[in-house]
Write a structure and sequence with these properties.
Elements (H helix, E strand, L loop, with lengths): L2 H11 L5 H14 L2 E3 L2 E3 L5 H14 L6 H6 L2 E4 L2 E4 L7 H15 E3 L8 E5 L2 H13 L5 E5 L2 E6 L2 H11 L2 H51 L7 H12 L5 H7 L6 H20 L1
Antiparallel strand pairs: 1-2, 3-4, 5-6, 6-8, 7-8
Length: about 280
Amino acid sequence: MSFSSNVKKELLTGISSSKHCKLAELSAMVVMSGKFLDGKWFEPEDNTYVSDKASKLIKLLDIDVSSEEGKKSLKLSTSEDGYTIDNMLIERSCCKQAYLRGAFLAAGSVTDPEKGYHLEIVCDTKRQSDILAAIITSFDIIPKTIVRKKYYVIYIKDGSSIVDLLNIMGAHMSLMNMENVRILKDFRNAYNRKVNCEVANLSKTVSAAIKQIDDIEYINNTKGLNSLPEGLRKLAELRIEYEEASLKELGDMMNPPLGKSGVNHRLRKISEIADELRRN
């Protein structure tokens, strides 16, 4: 079962205790799925999540969605785009949460967090998308809207915002599963960055050591190492003998010992001498 299906399955189990929240959730499903024919609402045939949840809510509310009284209870009204809701239905924060649950069950999906972060809700009309965008924004989450063919799609691509929205809708188990994936991905990314950084540093160290050895050998083959001042000669001999030693290890072998900066300074002097010999 996909991550999106798991979220919807979890949302099926939660039933609001308040009548006004039940009405808000049912209203979202009625407006955003199924269809009205001659004023009668027909449940969607291809969305069992809506069918299951809507049937439960209709039974609990003892309401006939297709009747004028039922439409009035759900704050449904007709517009040029079809049925829509009155903003009075979603004045309370809890009703906004319920409406989001219904909208996601009706037309939402979320990508498996292992593959990426993307949550979207597809709306038939601009009015629907405007309502959803306003509700989501009221919870300090900023969604984006695109037009895809004839539909208006509300979407979020930020992982932390998706987690917040799952929490708002009441999908707490799915939220925890997503957080676990996010933590693991962040750990992997941090580990990979550290490894890449260490590899890069090692490559720089190896390249520097190769250049140092080339300079020392060039001096040895031209003027000889004995031409170097004693401090530089001793370090050059150690560099040749211990090719894989770090600057700190080379410094510890000197008598008296040298710090890394001191070793680095002398190696730069050796490099300058080699470059001067090459130019001449």
